[in-house]
Specification:
single chain; 22% strand; binds calcium ion
């Protein structure tokens, strides 16, 4: 498994690279955003660790551009403590997950394993349930023949619910499945994104396909 580390702080890059190599990963280090982007676009990596504040090219901009052509490679953002705006931007731009510095190596490895497992399991490129059709390659969503534009994270959330039709999924399961946190129980990011998704799925007066199961989680209704 090949991992690209885009990080300008040498100490962090060394710490991460040495640790990952001892776990059997092949690591390539890019010390600035421009080199990082060039390498990321080669598509040779199974996972990318991406710092936000980088010389040359900001990590969030790099990610946004990368996602236009590569929607599959898991990208874990490395953010500074307390930079909530960076995290939200990263998730909106299609980050798979983020880690706040300073982080424990064990946590990093656990998340890398989880995301590599998830990305390896994608087999079918089309999903359908509750009158909603998704094409995972084209990244399109249709409901009752009408195309719905979703952000990267809304798309992943909907795909997760569609993979578990009729099943009540707890907030924690959704958090782990979609964001890969393991985890911040105080976050309401699942509720926030369910609301975004509902607004888009019910536009034009369509029924709400997502049922809230009070104090448990959410369920995609199956007709
Ligand atoms: Ca940095």
């Amino acid at each position: 498994m090949r991992i690209l580390v885009v990080e300008d702080e040498r100490d962090i890059a060394d710490f991460v690279s040495r640790g990952l190599e001892s776990e059997g990963y092949a690591v390539t280090w890019a010390a600035d955003g421009i080199q990082g982007e060039t390498l990321a676009r080669t598509g040779r990596f199974d996972l990318i660790l991406l710092d936000v504040m980088l010389p040359g090219r900001d990590g969030n901009e790099l990610l946004r551009d990368l996602r236009r052509e590569d929607t599959e490679t898991p990208v874990i953002m490395l953010t500074a403590r307390g930079e909530t705006a960076d995290k939200v931007r990263g998730l909106d731009n299609g980050a798979t997950d983020y880690l706040t510095k300073p982080f424990a190596f064990e946590e990093l490895v656990a998340r890398i394993r989880a995301h590599l497992r998830q990305s390896g399991q994608r087999s079918s490129t089309q999903l359908a349930a509750a009158g909603i059709e998704m094409d995972l390659l084209a990244r399109t969503v249709e409901r009752e023949g009408r195309e719905i534009a979703l952000s990267a994270k809304e798309f992943e959330l909907l795909a997760y619910l569609i993979r578990h039709p009729g099943q009540v999924m707890s907030r924690e399961q959704i958090l782990n499945g979609v964001w890969g946190y393991d985890h911040d129980p105080g976050t309401n990011i699942v509720g926030v994104y369910i609301a975004y998704l509902r607004r888009k799925l019910t536009a034009g007066g369509l029924d709400d396909p997502i049922e809230t199961v009070r104090s448990v989680g959410y369920r995609l209704k199956v007709k």
